[in-house]
Amino acid sequence: MLFFTFFTFFTVSGTAVSDPIVHDAEHYILEAQFGERWQQEDRQLNRRLAELREKHGTPPNIVHIMWDDTALGEVGIPAIQSVRGFKTPNINQMANDGINFMRMYTEPACTPTRAAFQTGRYAVRSGMHTVSFPVEYSGMDAGEVTIAEVLDKAGYNTAFFGKWHLGDTEFSYAHKQGYDEAFFTPYNQVPSMWIPQAEVANVITGLYPDLHGEDQYDLDQSHQPRGVVWTIEGTKGGPSREWGPPPDIKNYWDIETEAQKRTLAFIDKSVADKKPFFISYQPILTAFFPDPREKKRLTANKNVGAEGLVKLDAFVGKLFEHLQSQGVAENTLVIVMADNGPFIHYGPRGMVETLYRGGKGDFTEGGVRVPMLATWPGVIKPGQIVGDILHVTDLYTTFANLGGAKKYIPRDRIIDGVDQTSLFLNGDGFSRRDYVMIYQGPNLAAGVKGRFKRDWKNAEVGLSKNEFYDLFTDPREMHGEMIEQFHVKSMFNRQRQRHELWIKKYPNRPDATPGPALTGLENVRPETVEIYTAPVDPKKLPFDPQEVSEQPLPFSGSDL
């Protein structure tokens, strides 16, 4: 019960900056055992960071790149690529120049992982636990505090480029969530096939009824999202604008090129400003309809995942050259990683399990254990392989610490991310985490503690089954055990009880915050206005549209 004592200092609101960050309860079990050692490490690390800041004149720049749906082992390990028909030499070089993390955990799918990265919290806490699909009419709440907001207070220039996928409400836009500059897609890649070419090719049906024979029974066409927005650009405090309006498929493929161009330009701007920069670049990587300008494939693999990785790898090479040419390479931490495992269920061809079982959407290791590599010349020792557990939320707290911004992390909520500066700078064996809670949507599906894992999703109330796994001896989770692992059952029971107690003290948001979609665009198209405007006079209805949606009416005055 020792962990209770650490929370006597907290109040839910008005908390002093000097108060400790509120972590998940399991963290305090570790802190009670290793806190003194961590304090000694921190004193040494703080001296090191202070020396680096004096040397370079600013805290470190941070470039974080996170893409979709890639199994652990697909990048960073050339031996595996040799039998997969593609190569990523620049990303692989990062394994030689820095750290190849072999046990980075994310959430099982893209929206939850992106929310966890931005907030430092399991996605279930922010309500962003479910994959967003267009048109969503909801988004990440304005009350969440992103890593951009934290670093901004410490003097960083902050930018987001690429796949945001955290909602289509105006309050959830990236430049409304702390980023100085944003160029982002509110959705996933699904709208890439909401184009006339896809209707003609029979990839979609009914979105463009004028491109096929008349359906006399299709009475109400008002619900079709013909004005969906692919990309929004904006600056903090400035206007929001649609960029490259669809439905031309070339515009979609050009999003990636533009995001990369803006990434390099933002580095130049920040260097000129003599300010540290934080860039979150989350590549589109692929689309559900091919770019008609490409006449051949780049890889022997030929499939969208490999093709996207090879293109991204070329940009990673350009990024390192650019950092070097601007003279900031030695003061820049670069991280590349995937958001979840491969899209093996109903996904595109070529998505496969590599080392672990499962993929996107699964709570097995293949769904939530992803490749991640990091370099920081002269700071991170080269050629490291790290087997420690870390979670995507840890980047939030670690970035804040590196940027001298830890005091700006909110103290009125649970921050799941723990500071892993020691792991990055001291290497293998220095993690401050040996546990992970894995959710599927709002449901707790599994727990990890060290080498052990428990399947809660398939457990039956009142019974013990083969729901325990030793990830060292059974890394693919093929043979659940019961009798052999009864000794870990009570350990997992206590872990879950502590976790759920903290949810009672600091309740989760139930869902993404609702609101009208795609409002506030300076150059809005008429068809986009139709998305958030009622197609009929609400006064003619026997119900109130606001009752149906359980959300405030849009700024236009009505919405069905």
From TrEMBL:
Pfam families xrefs: Sulfatase
Gene Ontology MF term list: arylsulfatase activity
Gene3D superfamilies, A to Z: 3.30.1120.10, Alkaline Phosphatase, subunit A
Superkingdom classification of source: Bacteria
Residue span of region Disordered: 535-560
Domain Sulfatase N-terminal intervals: 60-404
Entries under InterPro entries matching the protein: Alkaline_phosphatase_core_sf, Sulfatase, Sulfatase_N
Family membership noted in the UniProt record: Belongs to the sulfatase family.
Record's protein name: Sulfatase N-terminal domain-containing protein
Source organism per UniProt: Microbulbifer agarilyticus
Lineage: Bacteria, Pseudomonadati, Pseudomonadota, Gammaproteobacteria, Cellvibrionales
